[in-house]
């Protein structure tokens, strides 16, 4: 029998953090090392998803969770506690899963209604390769600041930008990297963002102090990102310019293109700006696009199925392919509907099972506290925070845990060093929020890859803002630039 006297727990909002005094750091790292070894073997030696078939990554995460459960069993953690934490994790991603289904439906209805083709048609005439990548960063940054959501930004303008850039012949990894860089800048700096509110709450400072202080590292990182994408745009080889007129003509011949189609995305963005729940805003976008498909694209609906209604239902639920004379557009004018999101959703569920067990056995807290013991200087404290956020993003597969656990664990350490709490809140965002999207099995990495249709490892190297942010915060700490002391307040 397990009496669980070795277990202690604290809560931060709805997130439970469990400590296990009997668990060693070596034992806590066993599931992480096995998980990463299996993922690495699958990526580098078994060609991606062939090891266990299509759902290899999901199976690997569940196997990692099984290893963690065995470690927990030998450290007197009951199955009940592990199942409880799995359930808490699954509850936390219920809304994101609904959003993913709606994004699949949105992509399908926006395709058959002509919304996405219209975005591509007009975008090709405005966004040329010379300015496309930096413009994408700026556009996504503005939308994300206004909405407070990198996920919503990717699901709306992000999809359109990937379509436009693909038609221009720009590598999809570059496009997705630019979209994600801008979206996460806006997500970090927006007072409407959940992570931007969560980080100061964990550190013990207020929202606007946090945002002002965070701008010290975030703005320079964005400037470097824009310079990089500007240089990249000036030197990128494209194939879109040569046959641009042909692409435009093909779109015109296939769809009825009119500026009125932009009513659909404008309504969705307006609903989000007025703080409507994302599920409601996206549902409105699906329904409105379905109506517009009847009005503007009856020929397309007739081609896809026996009845117009069945064409719309199929676009919402399953694969849709609109064939044109241009192969590049054929790849672009395809959608998987809700069915196309199943792989991503199962990956998120599997990640939550692994993260729940890791939290339930106390491994996440052990990894964080062990990192804290390694460093003793002020710079070491910042480095430890960054390392903890990265470790939890990898091991727990969730950006919220990557903010909450280090935030609660390190708050007193920053005070003991005489550091103002905004140092901690800024570091949590610079390393916890933005790096989550670089990890394929993290909920953010899985979501962005699924929505944008670009593999995480393909765009990760181009998501300059995201991987540069932790280095920027460490550079400022090493040089003691704008490191606010408690006595300064």
Automatic annotation (TrEMBL):
Residue ranges constituting the Na+/H+ antiporter NhaC-like C-terminal domain according to the UniProt record: 182-479
Any Pfam family the entry gives: Na_H_antiporter
Transmembrane segments: 28-47, 59-77, 97-124, 131-151, 157-185, 213-234, 254-273, 280-296, 341-362, 459-481
Keywords, alphabetical: Antiport, Cell membrane, Membrane, Transmembrane, Transmembrane helix, Transport
UniProt subcellular location: Cell membrane
Keyword Transmembrane: yes
The keyword Membrane belongs to this UniProt entry's keyword annotation: yes
Main location per the UniProt record: membrane
Bilayer topology: Multi-pass membrane protein
Family annotation (InterPro entries): Na/H_antiport_NhaC, Na/H_Antiport_NhaC-like_C, NhaC_Na-H+_Antiporter
Superkingdom per UniProt: Bacteria
UniProt record similarity statement: Belongs to the NhaC Na(+)/H(+) (TC 2.A.35) antiporter family.
Protein name: Na+/H+ antiporter NhaC
Gene: nhaC
């Amino acid at each position: 029998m397990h009496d669980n006297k070795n277990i202690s727990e604290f809560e931060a909002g709805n997130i439970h953090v469990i400590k296990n005094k009997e668990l060693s750091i070596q034992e806590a790292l066993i599931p992480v090392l096995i998980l990463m070894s299996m993922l690495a073997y699958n990526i580098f030696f078994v060609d991606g998803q062939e090891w266990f078939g299509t759902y290899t990554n999901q199976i690997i995460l569940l196997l990692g969770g099984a290893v963690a459960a065995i470690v927990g069993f030998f450290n007197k953690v009951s199955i009940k506690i592990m199942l409880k934490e799995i359930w808490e994790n699954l509850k936390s991603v219920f809304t994101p899963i609904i959003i993913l289904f709606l994004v699949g439906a949105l992509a399908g209805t926006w395709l058959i209604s002509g919304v996405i083709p219209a975005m591509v048609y007009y975008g090709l005439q405005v966004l040329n390769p010379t300015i496309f990548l930096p413009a994408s960063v700026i556009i996504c940054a503005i939308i994300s600041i206004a909405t407070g959501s990198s996920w919503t930004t990717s699901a709306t303008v992000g999809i359109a930008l990937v379509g436009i850039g693909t038609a221009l012949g720009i590598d999809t990894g570059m496009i997705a990297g630019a979209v994600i860089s801008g979206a996460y800048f806006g997500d970090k700096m927006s007072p409407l963002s959940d992570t931007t509110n969560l980080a100061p709450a964990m550190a013990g400072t207020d929202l606007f102090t946090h945002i002002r202080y965070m701008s010290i590292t975030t703005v320079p990182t964005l400037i470097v990102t824009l310079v990089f994408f500007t240089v990249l745009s000036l030197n990128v080889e494209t194939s879109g310019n040569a046959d641009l007129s042909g692409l435009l003509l093909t779109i015109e011949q296939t769809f009825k293109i009119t500026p009125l189609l932009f009513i659909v995305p404008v309504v969705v963005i307006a609903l989000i700006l007025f703080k409507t729940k994302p599920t409601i805003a996206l549902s409105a976008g699906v329904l409105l696009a379905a109506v517009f498909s009847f009005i503007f694209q009856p020929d397309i609906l007739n081609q896809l199925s026996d009845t117009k209604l069945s064409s719309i239902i199929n676009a919402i639920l399953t694969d849709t392919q609109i064939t044109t004379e241009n192969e590049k557009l054929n790849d672009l004018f395809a959608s998987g509907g809700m069915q196309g999101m199943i792989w991503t959703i199962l990956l998120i569920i599997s990640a939550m099972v692994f993260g729940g067990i890791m939290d339930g056995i106390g491994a996440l807290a052990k990894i964080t506290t062990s990192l804290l013991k390694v460093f003793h200087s002020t710079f070491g404290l910042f480095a430890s925070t960054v390392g903890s956020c990265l470790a939890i993003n990898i091991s727990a597969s969730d950006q919220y845990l990557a903010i909450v656990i280090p935030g609660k664990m390190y708050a007193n350490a920053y005070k003991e060093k005489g550091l103002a709490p905004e140092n901690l809140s800024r570091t949590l965002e610079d390393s916890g929020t933005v790096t989550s999207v670089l990890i394929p099995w993290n909920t953010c990495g899985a979501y962005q890859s699924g929505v944008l249709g670009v593999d995480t490892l393909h765009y990760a190297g181009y998501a300059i803002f995201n991987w540069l942010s932790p280095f920027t915060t460490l550079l400022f700490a090493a040089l003691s630039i704008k490191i606010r002391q408690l006595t300064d307040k």
